[in-house]
Amino acid sequence: MRHLPLIYFSRHGQTDWNAVGRIQGSIDTDIDTTGRAQAAANGLKLKALIGRAEDFYFVASPMRRTRETMERLRASMRLAPQAYATDNLLREICFGDWQGFQMAEIAERYPSAYAARLADKWHFLPIGEGAETYEMLAERANSWLATLGHKTVCVTHGGWLRTILHRFGGLDKNAAANSIIPQDKILKLENGRLEWL
Asked: Which residues on neighbouring strands pair with residue 187, listed in sequence order?
C-alpha cells in the first residue's frame, strides 16, 4: 500500500449498551452522558494536537453514535459541528443474530458457537443476516485506507479499530480481536506507527 497520511482515530463515546456489555454491531444506538463528555474531551485533545483544522479531512461512520461523537468533538474544537463526511466503510462489524445480547446470554443460547468464537475470534462468523468476521472487516478497513489522500480525523468503532491494531500495531489477529479499545483516547497513525494519546 502507498504511504498513508497522518490519521487521528477516535472511537465513538460510550453508549448505554457499552456500559452493560450489550453487543451493538450494526444496531444504531446513541452515546450516553459519559460518551458525550468523552467526545468533548477528545475534541479538546485534537484541537491541541492538529493546529489548523482546515488541513484535515473529518469523516465518521454514518451510525448515530459516531456522528454524535464527531459533532461534539468538532464543537469542542470550535468547528461547525456538522461539517464532516460519512463513509459506510467505517461502519461497525455486524454480529448478525448476536446483536442486542450480552455475552453471557450468547454463551447460554449458543454454547457451541460461543466456544468457537473464543477459540478463533478473528475468523468466527456469527449466524444471521449481514454477519461479518474480523477478517471481512479488515478488508473493509483496508479499502477505506486506500482512499485516503489527506490528513484525516476519523470517528469509528471498537471492532474497526481492532483491525488497525492488527495491521499497524504489531498485534497478532487473536490479540487484536481481544483488545479493549478506549473511548476516551485518540489513536494516532503516522508513518505506519500507532500511538494512543
From this structure: 9, 196
